[in-house]
Specification:
Blueprint (H helix, E strand, L loop, with lengths): L1 H25 L8 H13 L25 H6 L1
Helix pairs in contact: 1-2
Amino acid sequence: MRVAVVIVLVALVALVGIPLQWLALTLKLPFRRTLPTLFHRIVIALIGVRVSVEGAPAAGRPLLLLSNHSSWLDILVVG
């Protein structure tokens, strides 16, 4: 039962988020860069993933972030 509820909630977030992101990109709205981060955080919370951050990113740029495991969750966690 919980899985079905989570799937429905993630689908609803996507159904709202995808058109909103498209609109934000098209109209160059100020939140167009923060919306994907918000989407990923909501989905991570819904599916019950805990993110553990160790250390801090280097101050210099460009920067490459790597995770210790490659899976479909990496997109949500790093995104």
